[in-house]
Amino acid sequence: MGMKTGAHIVWDWNGTLFHDIDAIIGATNAAFAELGLEPLTLEKYRELYCVPVPKFYERLMGRLPTEAEWEAMDDIFHRYYAEHRTACGLTVGAVELLAGWRSAGRSQSILSMYVHEELVPLVRGFGIEPHFIRVDGRTGPSGGSKAEHMVRHLSSLSGVAPERTVVIGDAADDAVAALHVGARAVLYTGGSHSRVSLEAVGVPVVDTLEEAVAEAARLAA
Description:
One of its GO terms (molecular function) is phosphoglycolate phosphatase activity. This is Phosphatase. The chain is of the alpha/beta class. It has two domains: about 10-15 and about 90-220, HAD superfamily/HAD-like (Rossmann fold), CATH 3.40.50; about 20-85. About 45% of the residues lie in helices and about 15% in strands. It has helices spanning about 20-35, 40-50, 55-60, 65-85, 95-105, 115-125, 145-155, 170-180, 195-200, 210-220; strands at about 10, 20, 90, 105-115, 135-140, 165-170, 185-190, 205. The longest helix has 18 residues, at about 65-85. The radius of gyration is 17 Å and the shape is globular.
């Protein structure tokens, strides 16, 4: 058994390190238009958004989408998002925070529900890949929970103990995944969820990544 030491951050990508909320809202509204649904504002989106995503659509449609509707919406969402994500950048302060955490001798990784083979070149393109000991995107179907992915992610990291690990994300599901493996979580309000819905989870909620990292350092100490 090797010594398990050091604080570790597992970063979420979309809506956390990657500031893509505008592309996500646009893609959601493009998918809704397909079914004749009204477009959502950012506030309304954050208030209603939840995973699994079909459940989110149910909140808006008053029923679960059919298999065919879900496939059509999912397809439009991804096409629109792929087109518009090129205009999105990293969240303010992300580059400095990643470099700072690493130069303090601590480790960090990315676990995202974004498709793995699209995630890796994106992370690489921003020049931040060397800051992470592992970058994991989703393999397999979309729409599930992050908890099982988190189990696999953490077990593939050597020298990282769950109790010294903090997950930083923008969704309640990030906290659920953290608790599932015995890690801690900090939730950031710049992504998909409203502060109110995040506060219901019972973990620290912050408005900037700088606060998130400070909180992670405190929790993992």
